[in-house]
Amino acid sequence: MPPDARLPRTRLSVPAYIDGVRRGHRATLARAITLVESERADDAAPAADLLDAILPHTGRARRIAITGVPGAGKSTLIDALGMHLVRDRGERVAVLSIDPSSPVSGGSLLGDKTRMARLAVEANAFVRPSPARGHLGGVAPRTREAILLCEAAGFDTVFVETVGVGQSEIAVRQMTDCFVLLLLAGAGDELQGVKRGIVEMADILAITKADGANREAAARARTAYAGAMHLFPPAPDRWSPPVLTTSALDGAGVPELWAAVLAHQAGSDASGQRLARRREQAVAWLRELVTIGLGRALTRDPAVADINFDRPDVSVVQIEPAVDVGAADDNAVR
Ligand code: GDP
Fold first, then answer.
1. The dihedral sign for the CA sequence 144, 147, 153, 154
2. pLDDT (tens digit, 9 = 90+) per residue, 176-196?
3. Is 75 in the pocket of ligand 1 (CB under 6 A)?
4. What is the pTM of this model?
5. Ligand 1 within 6 A of 73 CB?
6. Alpha carbon 230 to chain centroid, angstroms
7. Around Cβ 270, how many Cβ atoms within 10 Å?
8. How many other CB atoms are there within 10 angstroms of residue 233's CB atom?
9. Which of 76, 96, 168, 194 to probe ligand 1 with, by most ligand atoms within 8 A of CB?
């Protein structure tokens, strides 16, 4: 049974979803994301229709990944950064926060903690936690579609917050333009579980909690990481990832972090890297949709359902599933 099967059905009509999302109506946007995240078979067609309809209105937002181990300060920093954008810069900000639900218990590592308390109540912000449900170790199965919905709703920036556990970084990098890695001062790399490969993927590094007694340690960590970054081969567009210090507590370094994001974006626009990255991402997305579609078609096929895989003589299965891969648009780069 899908996790939401016991909830009352409160689906809107597809035109109502489209209209609400396009008008930037946050409650409808939240419900639209629920629809595309749904694993119910009867939600697949309306979800695909909704995505088809909004696709021409997507692609314009900055897509920013914020990652780091639990406790690195991701939510607190996104709250501060989001407030800076909304209040000081008059922008509209969406946050897709991936809740690393345990696939075993179905519970959440984060418990009942209130996340992004200031930003969540801002009229020009949208904060949405989504369960990862064990998919790719920290990215929700439908995060990419949720990004598109936020873009269609007119948000200027979409943050995707993930927990740094390895594979999720690769997945989230495949959906964003800029990858910000948060690091704690004073903890060794092993301690933080940050692998060299992840540091290498980062477009921007920020040493968090650079305040109070931790200020000096943060400055030292910054120097160490800045030195280490020179050892990596240069990015294709010669972007050299800056290492910053930030404090979400007193706000120090927060505007600088945003300036670094904008500089990275300007550089990758000028070099064509952003478009190239999005093209690659569109291909990867299509591939993923095909894989998901094939898997679903396979498991729903009555011929497959009837097979007893435990029988020793079942080795080769011949079936022809009717494949529906949903709203894949192979021409569009969004
Ligand atoms: P996340 O798990 O990466 O999202 O981390 P949180 O944002 O929940 O922060 C973990 C803990 O660090 C919380 O107790 C925060 O209050 C604290 N924290 C976060 N940012 C800062 C900061 O800039 N300075 C200080 N001193 N504490 C912080």
1. negative
2. 999 999 999 876 554 455 667
3. yes
4. 0.83
5. yes
6. 28
7. 10
8. 6
9. 76
